[in-house]
Amino acid sequence: MATVPQPASASGPSERRQAPRYHMALDAVCGPLASDGRHPADHPLERTVTVNLSEGGLCVYSAQRYPIGAQLYCAITLPGQAKPVEISGTVAWFQKSDDGEFGYKLGLEFGPLSAEVRQTFRTLFESPLPKAASSRAKKLLLVDDDPDLRHALKLRFESAGFEVVTAADGLEALRKGREEHPNIILLDLMLPTLTGFDVCRLLKFDPKFRHIPVILFTAKSREDDMRTGYAVGADAYVTKPFDGKGLIEKVEELLAGSRDA
Questions:
Q1: Are residues 152 and 89 in the same domain?
Q2: Is 64 part of a structural domain of the chain?
Q3: Residue 30 shares a structural domain with residue 118
Q4: Which is more confident, 105 or 133?
Q5: CATH number of the domain residue 142 falls in
Q6: Three-class SS of residue 217?
Q7: pLDDT score, position 95
Q8: How would DSSP label each residue in 151-170?
Q9: Residue 154 CA: distances (Å) to CA of 62, 128, 144
């Protein structure tokens, strides 16, 4: 794997806020950099998604809490690009993204970008992926209390032809699950007001809504949590960080199964 540029001093916060951004969730693999600027061969890369990509940096979700100042390698899959874009950066901040056992959101500030990568990013910012024609048979209720991830996944699913309705807490999710009649629900587990377990149980125990497939997606990866998820009626359980393409494929798979039932 080629050596990637080392991080330089970060731009000022006002400059970063003004930079064009790409908000759709993008698939990526990430891992720590060794001192020679290469990803260590003995450390597995983590599959994840990024949000808020700009020329100055991005946010990435990780099961690891990297310390501020840690240097990370990322290979990001961009729309229309045959090969992932390889970059490196420095962790500028982190926050726990879930009340579960794992789950962090990291702010990564890039080092100097090559002219080719910079132009690739600018082309992406100027010509974002258009929405595909939405289908009434693909209405998704997307529930997550992280506004960045919720917005990024909404754009990603819309680009795949879904009509997307969103909710930010458990009560809103329960109300929209009953009022919006979604074809499938993607439900975060740790939510304000009601947990994903509660929302799933209340919908699945109601004969009017039990036919709607529910995917729980969460940082909680313990077997007890998974057993509880299936016990309250969940049709699938996906742990964070996750692969965006694989998540869409899982949603499509459950939709196809519900149509055949």
A1: no
A2: yes
A3: yes
A4: 105
A5: 3.40.50.2300
A6: strand
A7: 87
A8: HHHHHHHHHTTEEEEEESSH
A9: 20, 14, 11
Same domain, 80 and 110: yes
The rounded mean pLDDT for the chain is 85
pLDDT score, position 210? 93
3-state DSSP assignment of residue 92: strand
CA distance 250 to 261: 17
For residue 74, the SS3 value is strand
Q: Which CATH number characterizes residue 20's domain?
A: 2.40.10.220
pLDDT band at 4 (very low <50, low <70, confident <90, very high): very low
Q: Can the peptide bond before residue 241 be classed as cis, meaning omega within 30 degrees of 0?
A: yes
Give the number of other CB atoms < 10 A from CB of residue 116: 9
DSSP conformation class of 75 = E
Express each pLDDT in 145-198 by its tens digit: 999 989 999 999 998 999 999 999 999 999 999 999 999 999 998 899 999 999
From 126, 160, 187, the end of a domain falls on 126
Q: Dig out the tokens for 215 from the structure.
A: 């995917």
The range of the structural domain enclosing residue 183 comes to: 135-260
Dihedral sign (CA 249, 165, 153, 20): positive
Walk across the sheet containing 162-167 and list its strands: 162-167, 135-143, 184-188, 214-218, 236-239
Q: Does 71 lie in the same domain as 27?
A: yes
